[in-house]
Structure formats: C-alpha cells, structure tokens
Amino acid sequence: MRFLVVGAGALGGYFGGRLLEAGRDVTFLLRPRRAAQLAKTGLVVQSPFGNLQLPAPRHVLADGIDGPYDVVIAGSKAYDLESTMDSFAPAVGPNTVILPLLNGMKHIDSLVARFGEDKVLGGLCMISATLDDEGRVLHLNDTHGLSYGERAGGRSARIDAIAAQFAGARFDGNASETISQDMWEKWVFIASAAGLTSLMRASIGDIMAAGGEDVALSIFGECCAIAEHNGFAPRPAAVQRGRAIMTAAGSPMTASMYKDIVRGAPVEADHIVGDLLGRAAPGHAAAPSVLRTAYVHLKAYEAQRARTAG
C-alpha cells in the first residue's frame, strides 16, 4: 500500500515517520524549502516513545507526483486546504482514499466537493507536537493516537487494509466505527478550549484562578448543544472529560489557536469556531454568548493582523 503524506511538519512528520520506521511505503509531498531542509538533516523526530533519524526520506514536489497513491494523509491548516488539495490532486486515482487529520468538519465538505463522497474518510489525531527552528519534530506529550474510519460508520475492507498497515507502527492506530461522532466530540472540545483561552489570553489554570469556571462551562455547554442539534450529542464520557479539562485548577493548558495569536500567526477562526456557530440552532449564532464573543474576538484579531500586514 502506497502512502502519500502531505507535508513533513509536526503531524505528517510524526505519523509518516513512524510508518517509515515500520517499513511501510511512504512518500512525503513537500514544498521546496522543506525538501531542501530534509535533504540536509533527514527527518528527525524526538519523542518520549523513541527518537527517529531518517536520512533523506523519499519525497516528491507537487509537480513530480508519479501517479495515484492508495492513501493520501493530509493534515494541513484549514486556511491552507485549497492549495493543499491542488497540490495532491494528481495523486488521487479511482481507488485512492483521503485520510484528513484536520480539526472540525468544514474540511470534509471541501474534500468531498473536490474529490467525491467515496474518497474521503474521517480521521483525527491526538498528539501535541511542533517543529523547532531546525525543523525537528518535537513530540511534547505522552499520547500519539490516530483514529480513522468510514464516516457513515461500520467497517470496510479498505479500513481493514489500512489497519493492517498501521499495525506495528509506533503510534496508537484506531480503526473507529464511530469516527464522525469521535470527530464531533473533538471539535466540541477544541472549539471550547480555543475560544476560551484565546478570548481570555490566558491558560485554563489562570482563568480558574480568576473565578471563571462558569464561563468555561458555559462555552463548553454551548458547543455540546450545537453538536446535539446536529445529531452528535457528546457521549457522557466525553462530556465528563471535557468539563474536567476545561475547569482544571492550576492547568497550564492553552489551545494552539491561543499560541498562534501570541506569535502573530494566522488562526483557524472560521474553520473551528465560526463553522460551529454556523451549525447552531436558528437564532443561536446571532445571540450573545461566550462562543460568539470568542468568535468576534478572533475575527477582530484577524482584522488587526491584516491591517498590520498591509
């Protein structure tokens, strides 16, 4: 089975590297700058589960794709999705499946519109990783899960084939029969944490120290209600886990969107928060709420950033 991993950043570099380590047929789709960097340093992964040093991993540039691949693994930022789809389109053949690892659900609509309903699996990953200034993949926590499945549910031959390839690789692969539910539950949590910590410009622990437990529970409850309105009410275990994380005293946790704001980077405001608001019950998206306030805050940041750049 031929895998095309789009990019060798934090996600692609980690999971693609682990598949290469396990002897799988992996090619990275790279931009010229990252290709030049890997030619010098190789793919370096530093992780609690074992470090990797993979010299000169096989790669292609967008204009060098040599035909269809069996699986395309894509984990770009949402604001890069259009150009990302353009780059890997030549790799999508009649039997190719696309495994996206973005948060939210809007990207699914875009991928289906471009490549067709049957081409797009559901997927998510649970990992904290980043690239350092030297291009090394730094795995920052003790989880490295990758879940995937048919969006309509159940199991299929192509999911079984992917599961066989993931078996033996050093990450926790999970062939889920409820991947759409899993994706919605992650979206609820990501939107809550991103909205809250970005709005407050503070960690969960600092927000709790300021007496903000009710605010944290309000935004989480709003996100749960939107998921329920769409037929994906979070399961009790997900609700319990989310509430505990969102109100943990002393927690240093901040969402990656908050970190992007701090360094003046683009944010996925529309994809993570705006799209969720857009799927709310009629009237909710325009009503005053913590989630809507967080969204306006994010859009104001984007406006300020655009003005500064101009």
Which SSEs are present, and which pair or pack?
Blueprint: E1 2-6, H1 10-21, E2 25-29, H2 32-41, E3 43-46, E4 52-54, E5 59-60, E6 71-74, H3 81-88, E7 97-100, H4 106-115, E8 122-126, E9 129-131, E10 137-139, E11 145-149, H5 157-166, E12 172-175, H6 179-200, H7 204-209, H8 213-229, H9 236-246, H10 256-262, H11 269-278, H12 290-309
Parallel strand pairs: 1-2, 1-6, 2-5, 3-10, 6-7, 11-12
Antiparallel strand pairs: 3-4, 8-11, 9-10
Helix pairs in contact: 6-8, 6-10, 6-12, 8-9, 11-12
On the 0-100 scale, what is the average pLDDT?
A: 95
Helix content: 40-55%
**Distance linking N and C termini:** 46 Å
Overall number of strands: 12
CATH class of the largest domain: Alpha Beta
Main β-sheet, spatial strand arrangement: 5-2-1-6-7
How many domains make up the coordinates?
2
Reported by name, the CATH topology of the largest domain is Rossmann fold
Share of residues in strands: 15-25%
CATH architecture call of the largest domain = 3-Layer(aba) Sandwich
What is the helix tally?
12
In angstroms, what is the radius of gyration? 19 Å
Low-confidence stretches: none
Order of helices and strands: EHEHEEEEHEHEEEEHEHHHHHHH
Shape: globular
What is the CATH superfamily label of the largest domain?
NAD(P)-binding Rossmann-like Domain
